[in-house]
Amino acid sequence: VGDASRNWWSEVGTFKMADGTGDTTFIHVSDPQSQSAQQYATFATVLEKAYELYDSDFIVNTGDNVDHGDNFRQWQWMFDTASDTLMDTVMMSASGNHEGKGSYAIEKNYCYSNVPEQDTESGIYFSFDYNNVHVAILNTENLDDDDSLNDAQVDWLIEDMENSDADWKFVAFHKAMYSNGSHYKDDDVCAIRDELCTLMPQLGIDMVFQGHDHVYLRTDSMIDNKVESVTTSTAEFNGKEYTVKENPVGTVYEISGCSGVKVYSQKDESLTDKYFPRAEVIKDVTKSAFSGINIVGDTLYFDAYTVDVESGETENIDSFAIRK
Q1: Using an 8 Å Cβ cutoff, are 132 and 295 in contact?
Q2: Phi/psi zone of residue 220: left (φ > 0), alpha (ψ -120 to 50 degrees), beta?
Q3: DSSP 3-state assignment of 320?
Q4: Cα separation of 122 and 179, whole Å?
Q5: pLDDT in tens, 202-215
Q6: What are phi and psi of 234, to 5 degrees?
Q7: What is the pTM of this model?
Q8: pLDDT per position as a tens digit, 103-128
Q9: What is the C-alpha to C-alpha distance for residues 243 and 31, in angstroms, rounded to an integer?
Q10: What DSSP string describes 98-115?
Q11: CA-to-CA distance for 251 and 201, rounded, in angstroms?
């Protein structure tokens, strides 16, 4: 890309189109938000390490790319410092509350197709397909007066998922329904949790990817704010053993820590116990993090990692699988 009249051209970038197989791999990151190019170098390292481990087809980013949606320099720092990775992939981003501080921030910095008609000032909701995967990206800044998701957005989500025949269905958004971070009892978070905890499994959503709280948590399979009983088995993939949830009818929710520098402390489980069942995995994470999803036919293999940006070492902090 560039400007032919000035002979300004970028480096060559490439990305992979879907090949129609039953195999898909993607990365989940969240909250790279930083205030300097030096801080965004942490995000660049996280992506670099993620792509050393995964031949990922795309990235799902659950928002807060920047500290302020209108700060052009922060957008430039994020894209430029991580360009070695980002020039060879596609990043699909949800709208965070920090994008919502600006006007049309996601629309100005990302190019999405097939976007439903909506007010895009606070962000964008949309969906996309890749092989046997369907992903809906919601906008948790797009709310009604009662702090729940806007009715038009929910209606669109229902129609979008009902019209998809994908084997695997995912939803990604910024403000986490299930989290052990500081926002677990915010009015909008509680309203969204009440609104979606039954709807997600009804729509056949396998996993929900979240952000906002900069902590790590993964629930068991959930229906209506309750843990679903699931039969488990074991399976080996890439030399590693996984506990497999067999044909769950509920939804698993994950908040994948922070892919930038702002790593926060978790809340005591006794506080969140008042609002939802204790998560299957809770980790006190003190480093930047990401998660990777490998889908091979009828099985999903999930792993979460922290990254030591000084040494470059990664640590696997969570693993599980789903077979359908």
Answers
A1: yes
A2: beta
A3: strand
A4: 23
A5: 999 999 999 999 99
A6: -125, 150
A7: 0.96
A8: 999 999 999 988 999 999 999 999 99
A9: 28
A10: TTTTSSSHHHHH---SSP
A11: 5
